[in-house]
Please model this.
Amino acid sequence: MTYCVGLKLDAGIVMMSDTRTNAGLDNISRFRKMFTWDVPGDRVLVACCAGNLSITQGLLSRINQAIARSRDDDRVETILNAPTLFRSAQLFGEAMKDVQARHRETLQAQGAGADASILIAGQRKGGEMRLYLLYSAGNFIEATPDTPFLQIGEHKYGKPILDRVITPATPMERALKAVYLSMDSTLRSNLSVGMPLDLAVIPADEIRFAVQRRIEQDDEDFAAISRGWAEAIRDAFETLPAVGEA
Amino acid sequence: MTYCVGLKLDAGIVMMSDTRTNAGLDNISRFRKMFTWDVPGDRVLVACCAGNLSITQGLLSRINQAIARSRDDDRVETILNAPTLFRSAQLFGEAMKDVQARHRETLQAQGAGADASILIAGQRKGGEMRLYLLYSAGNFIEATPDTPFLQIGEHKYGKPILDRVITPATPMERALKAVYLSMDSTLRSNLSVGMPLDLAVIPADEIRFAVQRRIEQDDEDFAAISRGWAEAIRDAFETLPAVGEA
Model:
């Protein structure tokens, strides 16, 4: 399993992903699920992947091979030269369809799942910030002010805190706290989501990554938030009045 | 969908269930999912049902028909005259197998699900308190001191607070608060779980229901807990330190 979350706020984009993959319960590995592209001054892009790892890796190979080919042949369309972020998302969608067409039938014949989903976010100079969620069929939806965050993978445990806190106007500091807590709740409750984490922050209209880092198991910030939240929840529980039944 | 939770504590048994059922997204109804039986001084039993409603209703009909028949013929074995709670759970299991055998194939041929699960709890005079989770196949597991609560239906949203609070030694007052919050979290996050709620409390070794009531939409206790928790979570969030990225 996997948990990835993306926020599109007035203040910028935040993306966080875990790194645990599992084939069954007894084959657990660590794979990066967050990938970033950066054309200084022109555009920044970040993608987070969930689902069948062979599908998402195959998709990323196609995306990156196109970028490599475009260095010799500028007629090759890529996510980095596409005229809009929307068109970049379409290129992810075309790569998804391509990989699904290649592997889905045989995967399903073996009883395996071919589903995959990808969060794609970024900004192009002169364009708006965008956050898309791409599905297995190659179609995608976009985050809007009504729903400024999108999640893939094991989304349930981490959703309540985002529902309570995140609006488009949420400042970056609060948003990061909420994203840390959203991931912390998921890590606590689902063994198939695991540290380390990857975090990317793209401030609005700056066309650059302000943060792009791996959060390791022993990260002090993350541990402080996690411990502080556990204590705060415990305190909150204790101070709630008893219910009438008791 | 459904959310039902059962606790087996040193202090007694707590069961809570919602009442919302849905066939698809546009056919939502209210059905009681909690059923109680009470032979004064001899035994108390409570069952909460999730899954295909025709399956669980059919199962309960069989259980109750046996009880009715046993009034005329004391050789009929029922959940109320079985020598142990374990045997009562087996009788639920046999009824489950019977209903599944009757309907599963045709349900699946129509693309519908026949899965159902039932929490069964109670105590017999001279016996231990028991809490079982019965599956579609008629097999069941029992709550133990390591895992003193069992959930059926939409279990994810309501699990974290139980994980944090519930041990076998948890006093009834704290346990009720945790169960209220567990249900509150589920109601907030999943539209397919809805008020009113049913609550049953069986104090240890008293062979009686101390509480057996419906919690309606306008219940003041529930509203106070729900509101208090929302405020406490918001306060806890505000007082947590900012993360380093911000």
Notes: Residues 85-109 of chain A form the longest helix (25 residues). The longest strand of chain A covers residues 43-51. The two ends of chain A are 40 Å apart (CA to CA). Chain A has a mean pLDDT of 95.
